[in-house]
């Protein structure tokens, strides 16, 4: 019996109003580096946003973001199982129901099309999962091998199981008796994979099923069979494969002529066949992909199903109606892995690779043109001819776009920003494809042959009963009529023995005959009674069967209601899960906004604290500046008052001299004399640091550096360095120990008069200069000191720098300098060098007697112009009356010019 897929028959069954659009799905490939910028961002379950790069802009200079809608969007975290359940599982259900389906992946090279279709052994793609689900569903309903046989004209023949067994022996058993070749022993290594346990429940139990697979590729617009056995020659090797042609069968369906179709009985066999053809597929290395597909691959899964006979044992055999398509159903699922579109300026292809890229782009352009013409014809009602024949790819799948099955497309996208120009073309093609309408197929695997449903189940029950309760073997009854006849020959007339023997034999036979007659009558009576009982049991069984059928119909109606209710609840659960996902996304966005606001509040708070601290510091510095200015004004007023008092005392002295004629000393000394009188020598104040070193500071031992020396040093240093800034350096007399700034920072604390280590009198401490020992400076510099790099630096020929004082550091030191930094009223950094002599004490320690404070700071040198001669030289208003300020500032002059002290 042969079959054919009649497209005209399905078109007549389908209503023109029942149509559906091409379902397009989007899958975003995960990026290798999470830090890279992306151009595609999912913003919902069915919406993606295309973000242009910064250099891309429109004519008006404004960049524009695009949004595209799909049936379903799978982000970077979507699993292979989720992609299969949404895209390919409904097509497998249609395949079992006798309907056709087409699923193809589309995208640029390197976007993950092949991975989506095949996957890995541990995480399978769409193709292996389709095979697993199909064989999980029809595992118990498969026909024996070679019952269905392809005739290489897109149809199938059905033969008896006896013929199928003979063909199995001829193809499988007989070749294995000889030594197998290496090629036949080689098995494709597909690895240990994890099977998909999903199962389709809409399988017709009264049908027998068979699965056939084929694998072809379209390379440079030529069709090649990847499963074809190539002839081998020991000299020339394997013969190159021959191209195949496309033909139409009697139902106007396109197919590949003489294409190899392999019957498989389990999913692993089909996957082995797939990997066998995969090794022969054209792949090559390009600049964008290490294994770039150079051809379009098509893996066809054809499911053949036919009804069982009235006994439920074999497929229906009818020679009279052997070409009737109602006795067999063939459905097909085509899984297409399209090659990625390429641009030669990006892939740097040349030679064969450039030719392959041109053919790939040409076939994809023809596919786009066909879909555009279909959409235009459906929208405007035009009757333009669709250019299917411009490419082998569109010509092969012409029937699907004309309404012979469901069409789905998975758009694979690489979200890298460098793929933006290619991605926007893919998005536009996907948007246009969704507007094409395909007529729904009405083909079904239900056969109306007038046979009783449930035949397979009844046959299986009978087989189980025969196995559990075998029929009793028939008893061997003795049907002989008695002993054999004796010898009938009489020797004499008086031979009574022979006559007596014959009489006994005849009597025995008569008795046996009577017993057999009685047994026959009893058997007939028993058979009649059994027949009556069987008829009664049959009536009871029939009535029970009617009741069971009624209950079954009621349960079936209840099951249908429950199933519809379950579907409604599942849809409701899906809607609630989508709402939950939306709420979770919204919650995440709100959480991010809250974090952003908290961060801004914290930043504002930090800025406020910083401004507050800055204001407090500035206020303290202003207060210090005001105190200093007030102190200067007070001293100036005191000096003026003292001058006035001195002038008054001088006049009084003159008046007293005039009045007093005798030359007697005045009774009361004048203020001038009191000031010029020698003052008593104050005792030095002693300080002790944390290391046990005593430090003595005396006012009388402090010497000051003259202004002329400072001015000459400044002029020489400025002449050498050529700086435009002049460093102010001042040497101040230390008024008292309490005026030393921040002594606590270096660990020096005032000690009481009852110190355990008395200080040696400096007058009795002398170092021998004849021994050749030079001055050894001990520089005490804190760790957080700021280097000023000023012109004037202390000249220390031999020094040792420390950040923390220790007793052992003072053993060889003769001089001590403490570095202290602070900020003046004009926010300038001031460095003070507090110098002193290191004197050993009687207790074995050391004491420091401070005698100098040197101040370093950077000031502007001002104008180099000389003072105008018209300005009074000794104008009191223009003179600096503070000796400390006059000695601490020096102006740099020209060559051979003196330094002017203001």
TrEMBL record:
Keywords: ATP-binding, Coiled coil, Cytoplasm, Cytoskeleton, Microtubule, Motor protein, Nucleotide-binding. Residues 11-20, 724-733, 741-758 have a biased composition (Polar residues). ATP binds at residues 107-114. One of its GO terms (molecular function) is microtubule motor activity. Residues 552-658 form a coiled coil. GO terms for biological process: microtubule-based movement; mitotic spindle midzone assembly. It comes from the Eukaryota. It is found in: Cytoplasm, Cytoskeleton. Belongs to the TRAFAC class myosin-kinesin ATPase superfamily. Kinesin family. Pfam families: Kinesin, MKLP1_Arf_bdg. One of its GO terms (cellular component) is kinesin complex. Residues 21-436 form the Kinesin motor domain. Its main location: cytoplasm. This is Kinesin-like protein. Residues 1-10 have a biased composition (Basic residues). PROSITE patterns: KINESIN_MOTOR_1 (PS00411), KINESIN_MOTOR_2 (PS50067). InterPro entries: Kif23_Arf-bd, Kif23_Arf-bd_sf, Kinesin-like_fam, Kinesin_motor_CS, Kinesin_motor_dom, Kinesin_motor_dom_sf, P-loop_NTPase. Residues 1-21, 660-689, 714-780, 860-879 are annotated as: Disordered.
